[in-house]
Hydrogenase expression/formation protein HypE (Oceanisphaera sediminis), 688 residues
Amino acid sequence: MSRKEQTITLAHGAGGGAMHALIDELFLTAFGDGPLLQKEDQARLPLADLLARGDRLALTTDSFVVSPLEFPGGDIGKLAVCGTLNDLAVGGAMPLYLSAAFIIEEGLPLVLLERLVGSMAEAAREAGVSIVTGDTKVVERGMADKLFINTTGVGVIPAGLSLSIGSARPGDQVLVNGHVGDHGAAVMLAREDLGLVGELASDCAGLHELIQPVLAQCSGVRCLRDATRGGLGGVLSEIAGASEVGIRLIERELPIRPQTLALCELLGLEPLFLANEGMTAMVICPEQAEQALALWRGHPLGRHARIIGEVLAPSSPGRLSLLTPYGGERLLEVPHGLQLPRIC
Amino acid sequence: MSRKEQTITLAHGAGGGAMHALIDELFLTAFGDGPLLQKEDQARLPLADLLARGDRLALTTDSFVVSPLEFPGGDIGKLAVCGTLNDLAVGGAMPLYLSAAFIIEEGLPLVLLERLVGSMAEAAREAGVSIVTGDTKVVERGMADKLFINTTGVGVIPAGLSLSIGSARPGDQVLVNGHVGDHGAAVMLAREDLGLVGELASDCAGLHELIQPVLAQCSGVRCLRDATRGGLGGVLSEIAGASEVGIRLIERELPIRPQTLALCELLGLEPLFLANEGMTAMVICPEQAEQALALWRGHPLGRHARIIGEVLAPSSPGRLSLLTPYGGERLLEVPHGLQLPRIC
């Protein structure tokens, strides 16, 4: 059988020779530096290296089940790296290490797995994080959907930094670094045959290099939250709830691409609840909002940054609303269920 | 609908109200202490607490896809805690924190999920580890097999301790703490209708309290490796390969239950390649083997501990063999593929 025709079999997850060959030839070749090459049951990381960067370990985990596996702007491999490192970055942590665990459906083409693992390795290299430990499981045909990836991230939070979704205060400004809903719209276009020629691509990107200079220079950042599942509306609603304040967005300030708006109108979706994978909301004290905005606009991932709203008095805790161009105010209610399944 | 009839829906993984209700009512109730309750995107753990225990962070990850979800002696929840903490313990690490990520198939009964999450919480409590961060994804019916769980473990390795699968030396003794193959045999009995009335139960257990006293008292421990996928034969073969030595086991010293032997004879399986989930191999210098054996036998998880073989000269690197009761020597070859899929 030619390499192009090879597929993953149950033997690749069984702990025997086939599994070790797959680990050696595919995973170690792609990710192999440092602890992973030792092939011990656990990576061993010097605590002194961590302590030199801060005083708290940050730990976060995400499983990725996106369908399709590849979409404009990214794939499940890139997403699995960026998604987890963003969950570290929004806590102010410097992302350092990742674990990577694969659940593979029997029959997955080997060349596809190689491509996705290669994309993952590239995203990790670009972000300066190391994949230090991993796991491979294979389940029978029909018992998973091609490939699921879990990544768990370890980072370090600098001493003195304390971001929390519970710390937004009335008068604070709300910023975003880019367009709303690109990831959700791109995945939807890749999945459904909507007869639309899409120029939309996922915004999938690692945000720590965008975030860290603002944290270093602006002491008035209250919190950051990447707007993934649940979208920008979802995370702002969480911040409003945890901080017991209201948040009001200004509709005409929201950076949304016309293609995304058109798609949402067609399907009856609200772009504020579409997922993003390279976009974060930031709440910051009013005095430093313009400075932060300027910093973001100077970074490639923040070119389209905007101040999109403000934090209101706690008279309406958890309330998220939208000021329309005509001066009206519309309440934004987080949907109970979903707009789109499996977008990350 | 009564609580007993409720099932997981796609809405429970969509980032909206249903997901937050599931997290609050099920996961936070079961696991909730400390960082998880903060509901930030990342757990924050003081580095000073880690540094007080050692000089290296240990990090390990495993996804669990066992079928069936419940079996005699355990379930996927208990397995997901014990399996990962054992991967820390065999490196000499004190297990401290776990992440927990769930991929749930739409339609999973809520009461079953509650039972499995409860089992996970109980295993973590017993082991003294905290579940500090998590994730929930739901995929459509038919796109996963009921439930997969990933856990990533963080521990700390005491200064001066350096175990490695590459450090076995000729003359070293090989010990195991319990019966060979119990987990694999129990899962097989739970899965197949073999017409056997099984008294077999999985050995699923956390081993750190068995391992740590031996490491504290015996400086001659070369390495430990829990004998999960690939079984005892698989891990000893890895040790022999990494250390470039041979390992010879004494068949009559192997602790194997008669029921396991009977099942293996019926199905043509080799018990040395059956999975275990509460059993570790240890390689130790000959002078301390009896002392370590006595320590293990004094612990409930080591009552059936035995010295089962020894490390041979490097003339046959990676060679694993079995001395039969009749004085012959049989070569043990790790199977390329699998004896049993999805045993962990």
Summary: The longest strand of chain B covers residues 94-105.
